[in-house]
Amino acid sequence: MKIKEMMKFAWDNYKQYALGKNELRPLTKNGHIGNMFGGLRGATVVDALDTLYIMELEEEFQEAKTWVEKSFDLNVNGEASLFEVNIRYIGGLLAAYYLTGEEVFKSKALELGEKLLPAFNTPTGIPRGVINLGSGMSWSWGWASAGSSILAEFGTLHLEFLHLSELSGNPVFAEKVLNIRKVLKRVEKPQGLYPNFLSPVTGNWVQHHVSIGGLGDSFYEYLIKSWLMSDKKDSEAKKMYDDALEAIEKHLVKKSAGGLTYIAEWRGGILDHKMGHLACFSGGMIALGAEHGGEERKQHYMDLAAEITNTCHESYARSDTKLGPEAFRFDAGTEAMATRLSERYYILRPEVVESYVYMWRLTHDVKYRQWGWEVVKALEKHCRVEAGFSGIRDVYTTVPTHDNMQQSFFLAETLKYLYLLFCEDDVLSLDDWVFNTEAHPLPVNHSNFKAKASVQ
Ligand code: DMJ
């Protein structure tokens, strides 16, 4: 099918021009290393493994696996983002292991997991955002206020770390993430909301900025997915998710004059009427979590999920390329469009398609497949170049400039979600798998693995 061809094209070009680098630069036909992964290489290889596997691109999967076996070096020395290494590398390796049973993926995941542990050596156990994978030294991002750690970063470790404990028999990983939860349960939440910046030293909030988009996003996602991954036994996570969503709905969810529902950002009580592309994952999340005692509440959340997904679709539909901007606003007569030049770009992000997949699987309303197909056509028309796929700098012009970057999450997420949108529901069924925030599938614990680690 078409999407499989797109994946093969993305992979083949990466392999030809950038194998072993982190991403492909499709215009200049070379590789990009960047500074997010602390000297680790092959981000695209590890991110692509499970997508190649589920699409039955067998030869290509073998190429990727061989690179992991022969060339993936973990003895590196450099500053890595704990969050990025966890979601892309640990998540990618774990998913590849669970899908294939190949030991190499498991042993690399465990070895890498060990290297992340020193980041948790803080007075509260809340990890710092940056870690040197060689020395184990860790520190906070220079841009994060007053040495704080970021909610979406330390809140997006739970799923992978429970699996690391399960596979290694070493409880340390689970202990680390359960401690994070403990700190978050204890801290006072303004109006029930979770601000994005927390001090790893005092365990208090450093700033009152709340967002379901960047800096906050996957923390909420991992609460509901922790519950699902525990086969619905981790009721503590469900309760935290329900309470957080209730506060978000009360304080952040708004309707525009034109009738579009959106989730604003909150700065110490003042609303910023903006939604980031990243926040568009929330339609899918709210649908996935729409399970409650009563039918009425369930329907309420399914409606909210559908409305948010519709708004995100509008952000695509209102652009000339039919791809959505990095952020869109609802102010001064603007509805679901970027108002700032700096927010008009699209870097092959998955969140809108991700919500289409959940909405499709949970409602079977064909419009979600139609919307997904609009994305396929737009990607082909505006992002496909001679040697791969590239992001674009302005979604509001049909002669867009390319950013010369094929992000690894395009192979891990965007293409995987598009593929799943057009598959039968039993391909990576939502009953048996949860997707980490980089779309790497992790199995639901039907056999009750270490329930003691997830509910205490
Ligand atoms: C991915 O790495 C993950 O989806 C993460 O949660 C957010 N950013 C990118 C994709 O946009």
From TrEMBL:
Gene: MAN1C1
GO molecular function ontology, one term from the record: calcium ion binding
Keywords: Calcium, Disulfide bond, Glycosidase, Hydrolase, Membrane, Metal-binding, Signal-anchor, Transmembrane
Keyword Glycoprotein attributed: no
Main localization (coarse): membrane
Name of this chain's protein: alpha-1,2-Mannosidase
GO process terms (BP): carbohydrate metabolic process
Source organism per UniProt: Gallus gallus
Disulfide bonds: C280-C312
Known function: Involved in the maturation of Asn-linked oligosaccharides. Progressively trim alpha-1,2-linked mannose residues from Man(9)GlcNAc(2) to produce Man(5)GlcNAc(2).
InterPro entries: 6hp_glycosidase-like_sf, Glyco_hydro_47, Glycosyl_Hydrolase_47, Seven-hairpin_glycosidases
Catalytic activity: N(4)-(alpha-D-Man-(1->2)-alpha-D-Man-(1->2)-alpha-D-Man-(1->3)-[alpha-D-Man-(1->2)-alpha-D-Man-(1->3)-[alpha-D-Man-(1->2)-alpha-D-Man-(1->6)]-alpha-D-Man-(1->6)]-beta-D-Man-(1->4)-beta-D-GlcNAc-(1->4)-beta-D-GlcNAc)-L-asparaginyl-[protein] (N-glucan mannose isomer 9A1,2,3B1,2,3) + 4 H2O = N(4)-(alpha-D-Man-(1->3)-[alpha-D-Man-(1->3)-[alpha-D-Man-(1->6)]-alpha-D-Man-(1->6)]-beta-D-Man-(1->4)-beta-D-GlcNAc-(1->4)-beta-D-GlcNAc)-L-asparaginyl-[protein] (N-glucan mannose isomer 5A1,2) + 4 beta-D-mannose; N(4)-(alpha-D-Man-(1->2)-alpha-D-Man-(1->2)-alpha-D-Man-(1->3)-[alpha-D-Man-(1->3)-[alpha-D-Man-(1->2)-alpha-D-Man-(1->6)]-alpha-D-Man-(1->6)]-beta-D-Man-(1->4)-beta-D-GlcNAc-(1->4)-beta-D-GlcNAc)-L-asparaginyl-[protein] (N-glucan mannose isomer 8A1,2,3B1,3) + 3 H2O = N(4)-(alpha-D-Man-(1->3)-[alpha-D-Man-(1->3)-[alpha-D-Man-(1->6)]-alpha-D-Man-(1->6)]-beta-D-Man-(1->4)-beta-D-GlcNAc-(1->4)-beta-D-GlcNAc)-L-asparaginyl-[protein] (N-glucan mannose isomer 5A1,2) + 3 beta-D-mannose
Family label: Belongs to the glycosyl hydrolase 47 family.
E.C. number: 3.2.1.-
